[in-house]
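re the bet — no i am not wrong, look at it urself. input seq straight from the record:
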Amino acid sequence: MDIRPAKESQLLEVLYIIRECAEQLRVKGVKHWHNTHIDYEVISKDIINGYVYILFEKSVAVGTISIKPDEEISDAYNIDRLAIFPHFQRRGFARAMIDFAESETRNQGKKVLRGTIPVDDESLCKLLEEKGFTNHGVVTQVPNEITKILFEKKIE
């Protein structure tokens, strides 16, 4: 397993992983998580800025995560778009990506790692709680936006 910053040429791989996860969650009934909030240009800019990472297993891209400065707290990083290709789930890759995000946060001298997730993605809620994140409840959202829960962890 290897986690590396995404290259501009890997944008389609990132989008494909996210799309497959979105479809899987939709089929499972997670109605507040879908692919329409993913914008090609936003992810492309995040890759250029070095915020997007890809997890490789034997040279195959199997997961992605974005780790970037939090817009609300200067001493925090925010994780977003954590996605493991469905065939590779339940192998510890999501846990490894969260560990990686914690390490990056610590290495950059930040004290908090935050993330918002769809309110009905029970498996990710459970994983974050197991990893020591605190559930801060539903985040106030703009009408017609995805309803999300804020999770936060102090990094030492």
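see?? Residues 11-28 form the longest helix (18 residues). told u. also The chain has one domain: 2-154. so pay up
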